[in-house]
C-alpha cells in the first residue's frame, strides 16, 4: 500500500510550484511526479471534480522508493473530501499550506485560466471577473477559513505549517529551514534562484495549435518511457513548451480595486475565520483589502 508522509496542500498561485521544486532538491524528500498527481482529492485541478474512490495503484507510481514522500497537489486544501480520505489512509500525515493575500491570489488564478483557455474548454466564460468569481470553481481555493474548518475536524493544528508566500521571495532559506524542522529532516543545501520553477504570470504562455498537437502526442507516450526525460528537464528548469513554435506570450489582466470590490468583503470574513482557527496573522491582508475597497468606493461615488 502506498505511504505518503506529507502534503503541500495549497493554495494555487501562492508559490507552491517554487517551494515544491526547492524541497525536491532535498535528498530526503521524494516529491510526487508529476508535482500535482491530483489523485487523493476530488478536485482534479481548477475545473474537474471526480468523487470516485482514488486510484491508489496509480498513486504508488507517482513516487520513488526513497525519502519522505511529498504530494504537491495544491487543490487538495479546498476539497471537502480530502481531509477524511487522508485521515483514513495516512493518519500521521503532515501538511504545508502556502497562503497569499486572497484577492490577488484569485486574480492571478483567473489570469492563468484566461490565458490557457481552460474556462472555455469547460463550458464556462470567465472573461468578466464578476462572473468568474460567482463560479465555485474559482472561489473554492480562496475560502481559507471554511476550508481550514474542515481540516481541523480531522487533524490537530500542529500538523500544519503555514507559509506566507511573500516570504518565499524575501526569506526563502528561512522558510526551507522551518519546513525541514516541521518535516523532521536534516539540513540540506538548495539552489535559491527565485526565478527557477516559478509559475508567475510572466512565465505563463498560451499554447499554439502546434503546441497542443505536440502536447497531445507526448501524452500518448507511456509514463515509464517519458518519466526520466521529464525529471531531467524539471531538475534543470527546462520547459520545451516555452519555445515560440509551441506557445505565445500571454495577456495580463492587472489586479485593480474593482477586483477587491467584487470579492474583498467575503474574503476578509474568511481571513477573520482563518485567523481565529489557526492564529496565523492576516491583519495586513485585511487592511489591504479594506483600503482597496474604500478606494474603489470613492471612485464610484465621484
Describe the structure.
With 302 residues, this protein is α/β, with parallel strands linked by helices. The chain has two domains: 6-202, Rossmann fold (3-Layer(aba) Sandwich); 205-249, no CATH class. Helices cover 46% and strands 8% of the residues. It has helices spanning 16-23, 56-60, 82-89, 102-116, 118-121, 129-133, 136-139, 144-152, 166-170, 172-183, 209-219, 223-235, 257-278, 283-301; strands at 6-10, 29-31, 68-71, 94-99, 160-164. A five-stranded parallel sheet has the order 2-3-1-4-5. Helix 8 (144-152) packs parallel to helix 13 (257-278) and helix 13 runs antiparallel to helix 14 (283-301). The radius of gyration is 19 Å and the shape is globular. The model has no long low-confidence stretch (mean pLDDT 89).
Blueprint of the fold:
Blueprint: E1 6-10, H1 16-23, E2 29-31, H2 56-60, E3 68-71, H3 82-89, E4 94-99, H4 102-116, H5 118-121, H6 129-133, H7 136-139, H8 144-152, E5 160-164, H9 166-170, H10 172-183, H11 209-219, H12 223-235, H13 257-278, H14 283-301
Parallel strand pairs: 1-3, 1-4, 2-3, 4-5
Summarize the structure.
The chain has 302 residues and is of the alpha/beta class.
